Structure formats: C-alpha cells, structure tokens
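Bench notes, bay 3.
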Amino acid sequence: MQLLPVRSSVTNRRIRWQSLDELALEQPHGRCSAQASQRTSRLTAIVPAYNEAGTIADTIRSLQTQTVPLHEIIVIDDCSTDGTADVARALGVRVVRPARNTGSKAGAQNVALERIRTEYTMAIDADTVLACDAVEQLLTELNRPQVAAVCGSVIPRYVRTLWERGRYIEYLFAFTFYKPIQNFYTKPLISSGCFSAYRTDALRAMGGWSTRTLAEDMDLTWSFYQAGYRVRFVPEAVCYPIEPHSFCFMRRQLRRWSHGFVQNVRLHWRGLLSIPYLRSVVAVAMWDATMASLAYFLLLPLLAIFVSPWFLLGYVIDAPATLVPILSMATSRREVVRALVSLPAFWVLRIVNAISFLEALWTEVILRRPLRVYEKGH
C-alpha cells in the first residue's frame, strides 16, 4: 500500500501516513479542501508538460486541493501531440502553448515565468502530486529573508518495479540523511526540479531557468548561492513523482542527471571555491561518484582475484553505512517491509548509476562532447 502524509501543523513536526486511496477520498470534500477555502497565497504554480495527458490531471487536482489555495495554475503545453492541453483546460487552469517546442523543461518554465505576477513561483512536474499541505509547508520557509528557493521531500508515487524500488530506497536515504545535513548548513545541494518554490524577483534576477546545462535545477540552486541567496529544505512538504519504471527510461534519466551534474561542476567551479561548505560537498560528491565507483567496481574485484578473497568484505562493510539510516527512517514511516524488499533493487540501481556517471565524466571532460539533447526520464 502506498502511504502519503496527512496534514501536520507547522509546530508539530510528526507526520502521519495514509494510503493513496484514502487521500483520494479525502481531498475533494475533506479536511484539506475545508481549510483551503479560508486562506489565499501569493503563489503561482507552473506545470511544464509535454505529452502528459495521462498524468497531468492528478497533478492539477493535487494543486487545487492545497490547504493554502494557489493564486493561479499555469500549464505550459510544450507543443504536445496528445490531449495534454484539453485535460488541463477541462480542469479550469490556464494553458499556455509556445509557438514551437522549447526543447527542455527549463525552456517551457521560462515561457510561463514571463506571465507570473505573484510574489512566489512554484514549479512542479506534470507527473507529480503533492501532499495536501505541501505548499503551506514550503511557504513557512519561503517567507524568511534572503531565502530564494525552498524544496521538499520526494517519494516515488509507485514502488512496484525493480527500478521504482531502487529509486525509493535512494530517495529514502537521500531525503532523510543527506538533505537534512545539507539543510543544517543552509546549503542543500539542489532544490529539486520536480517540486520547488521560489521568490519570483530572485528567480527573475537569475534570468529564470537556464538551458545551458541538462540539470537546470542544480544550475539555478548554485547560482542562488553565488548571488548571496539562501535555499531551504522542508522535509514535511512531500511530493510524489512517477519514477522510471523500466531500464530504458531509467537510463535516460540517469544519463541526463549525470551529464547535468558534470556540466554544472565545469560551469560553476570557480564560483564554488568562494563558498566553503558547498565546495566541500561538491568535492565529496565528485570523489564518491568517481573514485568510489572505480574502487567498488574495479579495484575490489581485482584485489579479490589477484591478492585475496578477503577483499570482498569491502562490500559487506559498506552495507551498514547505507542500511542503518534507511531502516531507521523506514521504521519511523512504518515501511520496514517495503524497504527490506526494495533493498536489492537499490544495489542494482547503484551499479547503473555509477556506470552512467563514469560515462558522463568521460564524455564531457575527456572527449569534450557535451550532451545537449533533453530526454524525458519516463
């Protein structure tokens, strides 16, 4: 059963979880919609969409049933060839269609940015749904001085296939271990592109979302830091995207993410040198993605073959470092069984992820053939 968080107050940080079916029954007439009618926000949501007719209705409905109503919802129909625009219009939101396909999510979002008239702007993918109080939770931090962007937790909407299970464990670990540590130092490495809110004037000061890399969310986050802004992570603001369900789609997504990370390191490395914590985090991430991957997939097997099989214990020693925080968080979410069943998939995804990054590093840095074509990850 898929679990979603029930609304929690800002002062009470505990989150109760419920099933997707329960949430669907509650939202139209339940607690969320009842409270939503009492308040308004100064926030506009933009939803970039290309051929998302099958998923965009859920996204729009989750925006329309927030505890704090949005000022406006704008769907950017990036020249879809299906019924994306028709579905969005039927739900009463504004639809904008550019003259030609922009070629990337960043390009589509910039089309909408020109039309924003509110203090805050939120970007959400067209395959993502929100917990009913997600916007309210984000606004608690976005109202603080010098905060340019806020992001929340990400949990896959479906946890069924090998690749969805691998991503579930990956997110469980990242958003309950890495992200809170980064937030403690007020420097989350990335304000997630699938669901983040921004101060509109700060967003415009950065020129919107840049198309110079394949990871526009990372590019924007690092640009904010170099401009003196702050970014915050709000774990109580939860979103549920549809993750790649097959190897083909997962490979596309990982390829885009890996190339995007390398592109951003090359683009921002001079600026990162002036921000000590961020410089250290990026350096560690680069080291882990390169040297740790090589050691994991090349050095340990060679040592086991040519020196001693005891070197295979390196894999066993590495496991608790991952298992302890994952199982700890799974216990608090009452998802221990799901986590245990999904763990083997995480090791498979880890291998594919490492190979994808090493390929991106070789192509971008050694061969100097940057990837420029934006491919959807599902």
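Next record in the batch:
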Amino acid sequence: MTGRLSRLLGLGLRAGRVVVGVTGVRAGLQRGAVRCVVLAADASMRTRDKVERLARARGVPVVRGPVADELGAGLGRPAVQAVGVADGALARGVVSIGGPE
C-alpha cells in the first residue's frame, strides 16, 4: 500500500495537484480545493485536531498514510504530516488504495 500511495502522491506533486504540509492543506480545505487528505500515521494530536476535524466538517475523506518520515521521503521532502490532494481522480485513487478512516 505504501509504495503505491507514495507513487500516486508523487505523480500528483509533479503535476501540481498535491499540497504538502499542514498549513497548505488547511488553506486548501478552507477554499474547498482539497478532495482528500493523507495524514501521517504518526501525525501529532495537534495536527490531527487541526486537519482532520476541518476535513471531516467539509466532507473530505481522510486516509491514514505511512509515518511522516516515509510520507515525506516518498515526495522527496523531509518528514510530512499532512498531504492534500486537489485532483478528484487522483483523490479517488488515493482513497481506493488507503481506504478512508
């Protein structure tokens, strides 16, 4: 699951359809531009509270991803706690791989 998820998110990042980081994901959710959220398995309670609550309130699926180090490494970045997917088709693929929580 992790490899497929990382590859999909990497494709989305290169296409400019993925937002990386808690601040960007929250802003995307507030604008209605995020179709699904991937949270690191080890995301802090603060991050979960800030991102997950907003996503659920907006009806956006939340997928539990790998730990932050692995999630970031899959995107060529340092540790990442949250990733937002802006593309609808890509979001459906991510949810089908990771399954919504």
